[in-house]
Design brief:
Length: 512
C-alpha cells in the first residue's frame, strides 16, 4: 500500500468512520423497515404470506451466506474498494425495489441490497478495532452500538408511520438519497486503514459455509410457519449442520482459513460469543412477542405498537456511547451483570402481563429491558475482541456477526414454537372448560355469543403462551447472567500489543 492510502490523519479518520456509520445504519435499518409493509405488498402484487415472507427471509439468508466470507474480503481488498462495492450494490437494490413492477423484481432487489449490507457491519467493526487502541475501544464501539442496536429498533416505528401515510415504496425512496450521498462521499473521502494480504478464497469453504449457515438459517426461520415436522425444515437443518461441521473441520486443517475457528482458544472471546448467543435469543423474545400481544390480543394499531418500542430505541441510542465510556473505565463484567439483572427482571415482569396491563406500563417495561440490553451487548463483544491478535480482527468480527444472525433465527424459531405449543394446550383446556359449563347450563348460546366465547378463549390462550415464553426468556437471560460473572478484563499479550502499536504507528491514526 502506498503512503497516500495508509496515512490517515485525525479529521479524515473520523470523517471515514462517519461515512461507514451512515452506510451501516441505513443497511441495518433496511433489514427491519419492510416487516410492517408486508401486508401492503401482498395486496399490491397478489402474493400469499409464504411468498412475501421471502423478502425478509431471503435478506437474512444472503447475510448469513456472505458475512462468514467477510473476513476474506476485508483481508483481501482495500477498505475503500470494499465499501464502495458494497454500497453500490445496496444502492442499486434500493433503486430497483423502489420501482419494482413485479414481486419477482422486488425480491431480486432485496437480495442485491442484502449482498451489499452483509459486508458493511463487519467492515465497520474491523475499521473501529484498527483505528483505536485497546484502552479507547469501548467508547468507539459504544458509538458502533448505536448503529447495531438503534437501527433495527426504530425500523418498525418509522415504517409504521410511513405505511400509514404513504405507499410502501416510500420506505425505499427514503433510503435511496441517503445511500447515494453516502456513496458519493465515500468515493472522495474514504481512505484505506486496514492492511491487506494476498490470500486466495477457498471455493470449497465458501460452498460449505453457504450451505451450512444458509441451511440452518432457512430451516430455523421456517420452523415457526411450517412446523418442526416439515421435511423442508428438519431436512435443511440436518443438511446445514452436516455442511457446517465439514466446514469447521476443513478450516481447522487449513493454514489460511476463510474463517478462523482457532480464535476460540482465547477464553474471553469464547465466553463473549457464548453470552452474545444467549442474549440474542432472549432479545428476540420481546421483538417477536410484543407486536403479537399489543396488536392481536389488545387490538392496538401498528403505529401505536411501533411507538411503544420507540422510547426503548431512544434509550439504547443514548446509552450506547455512555456504556462504551463506562466499559473503558470499569470493564465489561460490572456492566454485563447490571444489564443482565435488569433484563432478567423485566422479562419476568413481562411474563405477568394481562389483558388490562396499562400501555404506559408496557412502555416502561420495554424501555427498561432495552436499557439492560444496551449495557451488555457491545461491552461483552468488545472485551472478547480485545483479546484477539490484530491479525484475527476480521475473523472475530465475521464470527460475531454470523453468530448473531444464526442465534437470532434459532431463538426466534424456538420461542415461536414454545408460544404456539403453550397456546394450543391452554386453548384446548379452556375449550373443554367452556363445553363443560355449557353442558351444565340448559340454555345454548347464540352463534354470535359462541363466536365471542371462541375469540375470548383464543386471546386468553395466546396471552398464556406469551407469558410462558417470556418466562422462558427470563430463564435464558439468567444463563447469560451466570456466565457474565466469569468475565475478566482483557490485557492483550505483549506481542499482540506490539503488533497493534506498530500498525497504529504505521497508519498514523487518532492522536491520544
Amino acid at each position: 500500500m502506498s503512503q497516500e492510502n495508509t496515512s490517515v490523519q485525525k479529521k479524515p479518520l473520523y470523517g471515514m468512520i462517519a461515512i461507514l456509520f451512515i452506510g451501516a445504519f441505513v443497511a441495518i435499518l433496511n433489514e427491519t423497515l419492510l416487516n410492517v409493509a408486508l401486508p401492503s405488498i401482498m395486496e399490491e402484487f397478489d402474493v400469499n404470506a409464504t411468498a412475501v415472507q421471502w423478502l425478509s427471509t431471503g435478506y437474512m439468508l444472503i447475510n448469513g451466506i456472505l458475512i462468514p466470507a467477510s473476513a476474506f474480503f476485508i483481508q483481501r481488498f482495500s477498505d475503500k474498494k470494499l465499501f464502495i462495492t458494497a454500497m453500490s450494490l445496496f444502492t442499486l437494490g434500493t433503486l430497483l425495489a423502489s420501482i419494482a413492477p413485479a414481486f419477482g423484481v422486488l425480491l431480486g432487489a432485496r437480495m442485491i441490497q442484502a449482498s451489499g449490507s452483509a459486508i458493511m457491519m463487519p467492515l465497520l467493526m474491523n475499521v473501529m478495532l484498527t483505528a483505536f487502541p485497546v484502552e479507547k475501544r469501548g467508547a468507539a464501539m459504544g458509538m458502533f452500538g448505536l448503529v447495531m442496536i438503534t437501527a433495527p429498533a426504530i425500523g418498525p416505528t418509522l415504517s409504521g408511520w410511513l405505511i400509514e401515510h404513504y405507499s410502501w415504496r416510500m420506505l425505499f425512496d427514503l433510503v435511496l438519497p441517503i445511500a447515494v450521498l453516502t456513496l458519493v462521499f465515500a468515493a472522495f473521502k474514504l481512505k484505506d486503514l486496514t492492511p491487506q494480504r494476498a490470500i486466495k478464497l477457498d471455493f470449497i469453504s465458501l460452498v460449505l459455509s453457504s450451505i451450512g449457515f444458509g441451511g440452518l438459517l432457512y430451516g430455523f426461520s421456517s420452523a415457526g410457519e411450517r412446523g418442526w415436522d416439515s421435511p423442508l425444515v428438519y431436512g435443511t437443518i440436518i443438511i446445514g449442520a452436516i455442511a457446517l461441521i465439514t466446514f469447521i473441520l476443513r478450516q481447522l486443517r487449513m493454514d489460511d482459513p476463510m474463517l478462523e475457528f482457532r480464535i476460540y482458544k482465547y477464553p474471553m472471546f469464547a465466553l463473549s460469543s457464548a453470552i452474545s448467543i444467549v442474549i440474542a435469543v432472549a432479545m428476540f423474545s420481546a421483538m417477536i412477542l410484543m407486536p403479537i400481544y399489543v396488536q392481536t390480543i389488545r387490538g392496538i394499531s401498528p403505529m401505536e405498537s411501533g411507538l411503544l418500542m420507540l422510547p426503548g430505541a431512544i434509550v439504547m441510542g443514548i446509552m450506547s456511547p455512555i456504556t462504551g465510556k463506562l466499559f473503558d473505565k470499569y470493564g465489561a463484567r460490572t456492566l454485563a451483570v447490571i444489564g443482565l439483572t435488569i433484563t432478567v427482571l423485566t422479562s419476568y415482569y413481562f411474563s405477568k402481563i394481562d389483558m388490562n396491563t396499562a400501555y404506559s406500563t408496557l412502555v416502561l417495561l420495554y424501555t427498561f429491558r432495552m436499557l439492560g440490553m444496551s449495557m451488555v451487548m457491545m461491552p461483552v463483544m468488545t472485551n472478547g475482541l480485545n483479546q484477539l491478535p490484530a491479525k484475527n480482527n476480521p475473523h472475530g468480527t465475521a464470527m460475531n456477526n454470523t453468530l448473531q444472525q444464526v442465534s437470532g433465527a434459532i431463538g426466534s424459531a424456538l420461542l415461536i414454537t414454545v408460544m404456539n405449543n403453550r397456546t394450543k394446550e391452554k386453548a384446548e383446556e379452556l375449550a373443554a372448560d367452556a363445553m363443560a359449563n355449557m353442558g351444565a347450563s340448559s340454555a345454548q348460546p347464540s352463534a354470535q355469543a359462541a363466536a365471542e366465547i371462541q375469540q375470548q378463549i383464543m386471546n386468553e390462550a395466546m396471552l398464556h403462551g406469551i407469558n410462558f415464553t417470556f418466562f422462558i426468556s427470563a430463564l435464558i437471560a439468567v444463563i447469560a447472567l451466570i456466565l457474565a460473572f466469569f468475565i475478566k478484563r482483557v490485557k492483550p499479550h505483549h506481542e499482540e500489543m506490539t503488533d497493534e502499536k506498530a500498525a497504529v504507528k504505521h497508519l498514523n491514526p487518532v492522536k491520544e
